[in-house]
Amino acid sequence: MSSKGGGTALTRRNYRLASDMDKPRSTGIVNEKLLSDYLHHVFPSTKQGPTLASLRKPLGFQDLPAHLEKLLSEDTPTEDGQAVDGRLGPQPVVLDHTSGFEGLLFVDDDLLGVIGHSNFSSIRATTCVYKGKWAYEVLISSQGLMQIGWCTLSCRFNQEEGVGDTPDSYAYDGNRVRKWNVTTTNYGKVSVNTDRVLCVLRNGQSLGTAFTNIKMGPGIAYFPAISLSFKESVAFNFGSRPLRYPSQLINPPAADLMKAHKLLGYIKNVLSTAIDTQEGLVEKDCAVWRLHGEPTVLVTLAHIFNHFAPLMCKVYLVEDVLMNFLLGILEGGGSVDEHPLIQQLLDLFWLLMEDHEVNECLKQLMMSLLRAYRFSPIIPDLGFQIHYLRLTTAILRHEKSRKYLLSNLTFDVLRSVVFFYIKTPLRVKEAGLEELIPTTWWPTHFDKEGKDELEPKDESADERLRRRAYERGCQRLKKRIEVVEELQVQILRLLLNNKDKSTGEASRYIFLNKFRKFLQENASNRGHPTALCPPEYMVCFLHRLITAVRGCWDEGHRKSLSRAYVPPQLFYNGKVDYFDLQRLGGLLSHLKKTLKDDLASKANIIIDPAEIQATSMDDLDEDDESGAAQRLPGAVAMGGALARPSWLSSPTLGRANRFLSTAAVSLMTPRRPLSQPEKVKVRTLAVEQRTEEDIEGSYGNDGLLLGRPLEEPDQPNADKSLLEIVDGIVMMYNLSVHQQLGKMVVVSDDVHEYAVALKDTEEKIARCPARRADILEELQKSQKVFAEKLNHLSRRLAWINATIYSKEKMLDIYWLLCVCIRTIEHADNTGSLFAFTPEFYLNVAMNAYSALKNYFSPANGMDELPGVFECISDLLSLLSDIKDSLMQALASYVCYPQSLRAVERIPEEQRVAMMKNLLAPYEQRPWAQTNWILVRLWRGCGFGYRYTRLPHLLKTKPEDANLPSLQKPCPSLLLQRHMAELLSMDKDMAASFLNSVLNQLNWAFSEFIGMIQEIQQAAERPERNFVDTRQLKVCATCFDLSVSLLRVLEMTVTLVPEIFLDWSRPSAELLLRRLAQLLNQVLNRVTAEKNLFDRVVNLRLPGLESVDHYPILVAVTGILVRILVDGDRQGFSFCPQPTSEEDLCPICYAHPISAIFKPCSHKSCKACINQHLMNNKDCFFCKATITGVEDYSKPASS
């Protein structure tokens, strides 16, 4: 802003107001006297002088610049512009993120905030000091291990040693209340979340002298520095922002600060004064002020902003002056809509400030709000968070400001979407939870396996009262958190506005492209944790975004939100970038080549040849060899049946076979001739290249829905932009949300563990003899510790349940599950184009169900979700022939009774097809998961197989009680019947399946025996070498596989005994023989007293807890019992008939001689020679080549 001479010709946006020099003495705006009174009222002098209006010098616009300069210079302190002695380095001071750090750290965009991402990370500032008194402020937002202080350039830190651990560094640790300089001593007070610690080189006024005799001299200078452990978070203030606790050692910019406050006072005077030509100056409430374009008011404000605008580019002044002023406007309460003054002020900013000035001002204002929200202390009513969110909402209601912030700040500088996060207090006192939830409660009734009983029958009246009081406290907390959540949703609804097109592109499309870029960064940097948005932020952001999308969906008056899905054309038309994420059919580049004819015939899409040519030479060679010969031209595809596309048999993309459903094969033949419109050439668009037309489309352009297959409806089920946001929500859940949901369950597990310990301690106190006062005292101390810990954890759990595991959050995850299933359903209808579906949709469908089952229950039961198990049935019906991917989904679903019933409700034809896939031979496939599914279908029916956990492990706490393997047995008799029918009717399939099971059992048990031999040898060495943890884990896995394979054999023997006992079957005798040999091997290795197995079990090594006699012996016993029982029913007996030794087979000594070899005439039983001839043609005895085998019967004795 500039002024010319003494006039007031001010240029802003081609806006010009004439000065008094260009007009007669009558101003043309208001009369001279009224204008003078108005200007004196707006710009009152602070000097003592005449107060009567008649004695004041008239003031007009021509005199205003000089008058304003005079007022601003009054009482303004002078600032020394010379460099301060005692410091070296740039100004402003920030953290040195280029070379001054050790370990993994996440540094905020302002280079002042830092989060640790490794064991013990260190970082220093860019400026050092060597004499004088210096201080800086640190805002602590976590309560773990951190050492804050000073270090020299010569200090070398690592993952074990940080600030204070070297001779030339000094640190304070508020968590452990100690000071560090190589050695450590007690010092200070405990620091808590949101504390600010003043680090002073010589001493701290509040904590006393920290260190004396500090090393000083030439070449020695000290940098502010910090070392912090994983996930610890702080923010530094080196004086660029207002201090929470002002210090004489840090001087604020006093001159600029005073000017800014004066100018803000002048603006307030303008807002609270109205000019009435009849009544003169009228005082009014500034809250109702409107920008009506009065020339006098605008020219007055223009003079003020000529000085005010440059000051608002400085972060200190924005935070101390402007932000506090705007927050004061909202202090009166009420909705944000009731305070339009902020919108009017933002209009003034855009009118009277240059672009670069208002841009910098808005940027610093939002950064200050973000910082304040992130580090604000948690109080019972969440007042600080609500205050900052209300102001953020008010600013974003201004259309032009919102679009600037969306385009230039959101998801660029604010990558961590902090505004949508509600942090969990680590200490309940800081959040006031003791007042909000005065009564605590935790489960005190457990079932036989140690799990909480949902509805204890013998709950006492006192327990019931405590539980209800606790629940009421939880409800109070939830209502307060919901206020914050609603403000966060309002912010997202503003960002999703698609009606504000008057000033350019609508907010929603700017947000959509930024959101997609945000997802790309997180998907591409999953191996680099410092580049990722923290998962705890992602969880909150996902729930707020789902709520906001639902609101926008309802406003569109489209189809029911419960039937929401993502149309399949988004996956192949190139309008949405999936950042090279895996598709169900393999890599996108390969699918574009091999399915380009299907895209042309079914979706009227032609892939840009430039994209196909850009693929690697390996892919091109593969296409020439395996695909070109099989792919039919488009003209041929229009008539007759389609050949099997090359992507189904590609040698390098065998993954595609896993995902081919029966429906896909049947749909590859067109149902009716296609009336083809003109085909459209497409290529993948980068996020930055897209426009609103690319998303929503225009006349003759379907936008995101380009390439609609005939199976899809003409009208989309929502705005096209919302469909892409829903797609992004699914991707976000897959990136990190599901993993974080699982991590937060640990608090509930801790409550359960301490509750069990407390109950056990109370029972011991009740049994303790009165004469053992010493034991009683120790038990009472333990009881007190457990009770205090439970009081803390129960209140913290209430917070977590309200913010993460509430019923509303559960419904969000359920909605996400339905979206994935409906999307897969519609994609499956497209036939071979189903291969373009991103793989994460199937992952989210499985993980969302797992989360609903394991993380939200029992607080919010799945039974309350409408149609959840019908959705699972639909998914399994679609994927009944997708082999390996189905195994993963099925393995999750068969562990729980409700989802297993959903599996049983799919059509019988698909159930049988699914079981047939499970019974395929184990060779050349990942068989362990298939075997696991069969075991779960049987568990609860086998001999000694009704346990959830192994009996010898019941007293130990599992690592994760929600694991599928630790769920109660829920066998499926229906699927067992299908298995029995298939094995009984198809003799070849039964033989191949059982042979593969026996082969894998032989391998698994042999590997297990070999490993325990190595473990035993290592344990017996005098040097006591430790066994590798990985080796122990592999050993336990081989044992578990052996047991599960034995259980599958038990299941088969029980359901279809004739496979082994009906010797009219060609393979029965051989299968029974192999089974008996393996069982004999197992028994020999396991049952011998003080043998290898026994010695390893008695070592009780960590990692081998599951290795025990019980699980494997009961499985073998179950097989033998069933063979004996069913053998008696069929007249089969293991008891040998009396015979002489000469008549027994010389190989096995178990059967009579029944075969003679040609030409050597040696003899054995048929079983031995048949098994031998499968691998060898030489005689057992003479090594002659056997040319034939004939039946042999002993001649009758004379």
UniProtKB/TrEMBL annotation:
Give the EC number(s) listed in the UniProt record.
2.3.2.27
According to the UniProt entry, its GO molecular function terms are:
ubiquitin protein ligase activity; zinc ion binding
State the reactions this protein catalyses: S-ubiquitinyl-[E2 ubiquitin-conjugating enzyme]-L-cysteine + [acceptor protein]-L-lysine = [E2 ubiquitin-conjugating enzyme]-L-cysteine + N(6)-ubiquitinyl-[acceptor protein]-L-lysine
Q: Quick one: a GO cellular component term?
A: cytoplasm
User: Domain B30.2/SPRY spans what residues?
Assistant: 73-262
Instruction: Provide the leader sequence positions.
Output: none
Q: Which GO terms describe its biological process?
A: protein ubiquitination; proteolysis involved in protein catabolic process
Mind telling me what this protein is named? RING-type E3 ubiquitin transferase
Query: Which organism is this entry from?
Result: Oreochromis niloticus
- UniProt lists the gene as RNF123
